[in-house]
Amino acid sequence: MPLQFDGISIIKKSNIIYGGYCINHSIKFKNGATKNLGVILPTEEPLIFETKVAERIEIISGRCWVQIGENSDVIIYYAGQSFYVPKKSQFKIISEEIIDYICHIEGH
Amino acid sequence: MPLQFDGISIIKKSNIIYGGYCINHSIKFKNGATKNLGVILPTEEPLIFETKVAERIEIISGRCWVQIGENSDVIIYYAGQSFYVPKKSQFKIISEEIIDYICHIEGH
To answer: What is the pTM of this model?
Structure first.
């Protein structure tokens, strides 16, 4: 996994979700693709994210517990791993440490 | 003030300072310059940052109170404003909201 993205644009202002428990920056690639690069802070309750489009969440550092859509399974994801969330679905995520992640838009 | 940086590289993993009260990403420009783009979360006590090199801190969003070096003045900085910190000095910063900022390296 490359440690950096090259040749991108980044919006200076962050996106602040759940009062700062999720903070990310939108980055844009030359081919028009957009991703969000950011962090999720530790919480006592899971954060819930709804998807409009299909997304792949890549964990860059840390460890988190994830439940996707109607599936009741909770799966642990570690740095280097990804999980896929269909469009018009949701996922719940919780961690005990700060997670670095990338949200890849997978389709509309 | 442009809303974004273009043609940059960004390190995927964030820099986490003060247990997450300051989180930034290192970005690199084609000319070799490096800046840090990130956020400072609200705290009850000021965060203290020591400078090895001269830095200019640009506030992208929010409002913060800043004290630089031995100067006892506390100055409020708003979005769009910057403050300069000499090398081998320090500054104290506190805010009641999430601050977006850029740390520009001004000299060695």
So the answer is: 0.94
